[in-house]
Amino acid sequence: MSTKLEQLKSMTKVVADTGDIEAIRRFAPLDATTNPSLLLKAAALPHYAELLDGAREWATERGGSTTEQLANCCDRFAVDVGREILDIIPGRISTEVDARLSFDTTATLERARKIIGLYEEAGIGRDRILIKIASTWEGIRAAEQLEREGINCNLTLLFGFSQAAACADAGVYLISPFVGRILDWYKANTDLVVNTPADDPGVQSVTRIFNYYKQHGYQTVVMGASFRNTGEIESLAGCDRLTISPALLEELEADSGDLPQALDAAAASSAEARQTPTESAFRYDLNADAMATEKLAEGIRNFVADQVKLEQLIASR
Question: Which of 9, 13, 41, 132 is catalytic?
Answer without folding.
Answer: 132
